[in-house]
Amino acid sequence: MNVQHPFGVAVLADDHEAAMATLAEDVVFRSPAVYKPYEGKETVEQILRLVATVFENFRYTSEWRDGSTTILFFEADVGDRELQGIDILEENEDGLIGGFTVMIRPLSGLQAVAATMAARLGIA
User: Fold this and answer.
1) pLDDT, tens digit, for every residue of 63-85?
2) Helix or strand run (H / E) with residue 72
């Protein structure tokens, strides 16, 4: 699959700075594991940097676009868990990502992500 969205291209190139440049200052990030959304580019950047250390063998496998919304389908491993998920990227009027929603399956994969992130953040 040839990913075309600038965020996806940057992630696959391991270019964190280019990926972060696609985020709006007031981006809202909705995690699959936490009810309350995270707001602001600086906060979202910290979350995405941590997620990048949690996922192994991360790859985007499909991309769909409809207007200002892009859905990137991904696969990755966390420990011994294989997971699939989607990143839903909603662009604002400036073409930057203003809304970023992540969904992950199966539940055991999501639980592995949440537990690993909590451990790295020092949250019991």
Assistant:
1) 999 999 999 999 999 989 999 99
2) strand 69-78
